[in-house]
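Memo subject: From amino acid sequence to discrete backbone structure tokens
Keywords: amino acid chain, backbone geometry, structure tokens, three-dimensional fold.
Body of memo: The sequence and its backbone structure tokens, given next.
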Amino acid sequence: MNIFELFIVQPIFNFLLWLYTTIGDFGVAIIIFTILIRFAMWPLVVKQLHQVKAMRKLQPELAEIRKRAKGNKQLEGLQMLELYKKHGVKPFRSILMLLIQLPIFIALFQVIQVFTSHREKIELFTYGFMRNVESVKDLIANPETFHEYFLNIIDLSSHTITDNGVNIFLLLLAVLAAVTQYVISRQTNPQSSTKRLRDVLAEAGAGKEPDQAELNAVMMGKMTKILPIMMLFIMMGLPGAIGLYYVTSNTFAIIQQHFILKRDQEEMEEIAEAMIKREGKKATAKARARQARKAETVPNITRIQAKDTQKKEGKS
């Protein structure tokens, strides 16, 4: 057993094994496992989404930096780093989520392979204390009794297209994986460029230097459409258990991101209202001060006018 299997595959295997032997349904065990993983990553997701929102807000300032730099990439890079530091933005933090999720995805694929295709390895990957559990002991003794179905209907060890034809349930999972991927992309990249990629390339061919922010927006818009199609074909080529994991993970992520982004929006609105109230209080205080000064001025003017009147009467 290598280091990856020892520290990542084996813990996931035993956790999933415990869920399966407790619940008795492999599909439900995968769903619960996925939700628990997403909950464990909640703090990282919050930070990632905050970074996404912060980067969006900085786009006008980044465009201004590019304009001032006039093609000087070194100056542009230094000013961008200063801007990121000033606002506490760490652009590469979003990569951390990928670095965490990718090993889990690979490990889960290996775990499913053990459960479905290499059941003779079940005992090898099972922790010693788990082997004393009666249901686990029975599974190790009779690995052919492992039930790889979801709700006794969907064979999670199968692929979408086999020699027997197309599995409708797994095809539906692959479609749901693509749809949820599209929704997630739209949540994190809702703004799309008005220009098309061909327009940007045509301008570049005509000698005009393309705006990097605009080019990034065009590319992100393309990826938003292309990535779901890629996921559809990828999921069709993998066991149904992976598709179920991906759909569950994406569905939970959509709900999670909606909640976090909505909360951030509410917080921003509260801050804006507080600022308006403070400005209103300042304006009210200034108005009162002006009224007070005016009130003090009026009696003084009245007294001066009265003195002038008395002098005129005295002369006459």
Observations:
- Residues 3-158+239-315 form one domain.
- DSSP finds twelve helices and four strands in the chain.
- The beta strands are 149-150, 154-155, 161-162, 165-166.
